[in-house]
Design brief:
- By secondary structure, this protein is of the alpha+beta class.
- It is built from 3 helices and 11 strands; from the N terminus they run E-E-E-E-E-H-E-E-H-H-E-E-E-E.
- The strands form 3 sheets. Strands 1, 2, 3, 4, 5, 6 and 7 form a 7-stranded antiparallel β-sheet that branches.
- Strand 4 and strand 5 (about 35-45) form a beta hairpin.
- The protein starts with a strand and ends with a strand.
């Protein structure tokens, strides 16, 4: 377990929620409120610069305010880590909404997706993409791995996630 600010993060390998090209996603808990969160951990490398990571965070932050966009909570930057070369490397802990129903692959396995449900999911994703485009953001990586699901209490909601290669575009 790691304590990062007010969050306790379970970084044991068996508790990885997801893994991508640039990092891992773990489960975390706000120690004050008990809120469960997801924590994306990304370490600076020669190919992944702090500026690139900050750009992803900036885009995710600016995309907040829509039900079908992954919720951003906060970020913690740690510059005390040393890589193999003993050079200090930045570690970014990105605290985001926990999507407990998994990605589209996992969701489709555990839920019977009838035609009407699939149409609803695609409508939610389309609404999220339209919202991003209205903010001059192009996601550039919409795929089943980047569509996550939460239980809203009334229905299951699709969330667009992973803004790692997203870009702002001119009007």
């Amino acid at each position: 377990m790691e304590v990062i600010g007010e969050f306790e993060v379970d970084t044991r390998a068996r508790n990885i929620l997801g893994e991508g090209a640039f990092g891992q996603v773990y489960r975390g808990t706000n120690q004050k409120t008990g809120q469960m969160v997801a924590v994306k951990c990304v370490m600076e490398t020669d190919k992944i610069t702090p500026e690139r990571i900050r750009n992803e965070i900036k885009i995710l932050e600016s995309a907040q305010g829509h039900d079908n966009i992954l919720g951003f909570i906060q970020v913690h930057e740690d510059f005390s880590l040393k890589g193999v070369t003993k050079k200090k490397r930045a570690m970014f802990w990105i605290f985001i909404e926990l999507c407990s129903l998994g990605n589209l692959y996992e969701y489709s396995i555990s839920h019977l997706l009838e035609k009407e449900h699939m149409i609803d999911i695609m409508g939610q994703v389309s609404d999220g993409v339209a919202y991003l485009h209205a903010k001059n953001i192009v996601h550039r990586d919409i795929k089943p791995d980047n569509l996550l699901f939460v239980d809203s209490g009334f229905d299951h909601v699709a969330k667009i996630a992973d803004f790692g290669i997203s870009k702002w575009v001119e009007d």
